[in-house]
Specification:
By secondary structure, the protein is of the alpha+beta class. The chain has helices spanning about 5-10, 20-30, 50-60, 75-80; strands at about 15, 85-90, 100. The radius of gyration is 14 Å and the shape is globular.
Length: about 110
């Protein structure tokens, strides 16, 4: 049986796909034309939260959208995921960071 964590990770974008995840999220939510081609973040910043956040903020600016960084524990994330859509959630499992793109939520479904 697949755990909830394994199920979530199966739907994540790898850190080197961050630009694709951001562009697709923006396009799907129709919040910007998102026609720019973004450069992938350098591998040296994948595990550096502050550097990765700076890269993500700059990439979002290129797409004409703003991002707001919110830090939450795993227990808080379950509650917050229902009120912060659309969102790009950085998850840091032992095998390296990844991103979960959330378009929205409806009731108990995300």
């Amino acid at each position: 049986m697949i755990s909830v964590a394994e199920n979530v990770l199966a739907h994540c974008w790898l850190a080197d796909q961050a630009c694709d995840a951001l562009v697709q999220l923006v396009r799907c939510c129709k919040i910007s034309a998102a026609s720019e081609t973004l450069a992938s973040p350098p591998p040296s910043i994948y595990n550096h939260t502050s550097k990765f956040s700076i890269w993500l903020d700059e990439a979002a600016s290129q797409l004409g959208v703003e991002i707001e960084e919110i830090e939450a524990s795993y227990s808080e994330a379950a509650r917050m995921i229902h009120v912060i859509d659309p969102s790009l959630i950085r998850i840091a499992p032992a095998n390296g960071p990844c991103l979960l793109a959330v378009l929205g939520s409806r009731g108990k479904f995300v």
